Amino acid sequence: MFAATAGRLICVFRRRTNAATDEPPQTHEVLKPGGKGRPTPKRRDAEKRNRSPITAPRTRKEAYRQVRERQAGDRQKTREGMARGDDRYLPTRDRGPVRRLARDFVDSRRTFGEFFMYLTLLILLGAMAAPVSVKTYLYVYGWPVMLVLIVGESIYLGGRVKKLAGERFPGESLRGIGLYTATRAMQIRRLRMPKPRLKPGQKGEV
Question: Which candidate, 35, 138, 163, 205, has a CA 20 to 30 Å from the CA of 48?
Fold first, then answer.
């Protein structure tokens, strides 16, 4: 449309500039000097990328295998802890400083009880190969003498441990310590659990 003003025609409607078009204005991201050239990621997004994905078992067989492996690892850890004498892995009857003292006291010396199985086997083999008179002698005297030695030793060790524990640990319970000591003394050394910390002859380290 044109309008007449002072003898001239003036265009009323002019072409719009780019600023009035529907195109959105282009924004440019200002980068800081010395920057990485990209926006810094959020900490939450970075943690998600760094977190290793947890792979779930795809089959039931694989799930059972993972469970068995985990249980086997736990059992191995428990056995090693028991062998070391760690109270966290020991049953209740083996826990505490009094029981540890009893084990060290027994393990630091040789006992008749630890040879009980060997002596029993020796008497049986000797009785089988020996004449009737010798066999009678073994049965009549061999067994009673061995039992007297073992019982007497068990009573002696139990009394010594109870007295020593009462002096060192006055606030600890001594209930059942005599039987515990006797049972330990009758076990074969290499089969004892927890494993012996002391060797025979190390009585001064108890």
Answer: 35
Please tell me the total count of domains within the chain.
Answer: 2
> For residue 197, is it within any domain?
yes
The range of the structural domain enclosing residue 196 comes to 96-205
- Yes or no: say if 117 and 125 are a contact pair by the CB < 8 Å rule: no
End position of a domain, from candidates 43, 74, 92: 92
* Cis ω before 194 (30° cut-off from 0): yes
Whether 197 and 124 share a structural domain: yes
For the chain, how many helices (H) and strands (E)? Answer: 7, 2
160 phi and psi, to 5 degrees? Answer: -65, -45
pLDDT at position 43, please?
Answer: 65
Q: Note whether residue 103 is domain-resident.
A: yes
Whose CA is closest to 108, among 4, 202, 1? 202
Beta-bridge partners for 5: 8
pTM of the model: 0.64
Cβ-in-10-Å burial (0-12, 13-18, 19+) of 157 comes to buried
Tell me which range, 16-30, 41-55, 77-91, is most confidently predicted by mean pLDDT.
Answer: 77-91
Exposed / middle / buried, residue 202 (Cβ in 10 Å: 0-12, 13-18, 19+):
middle
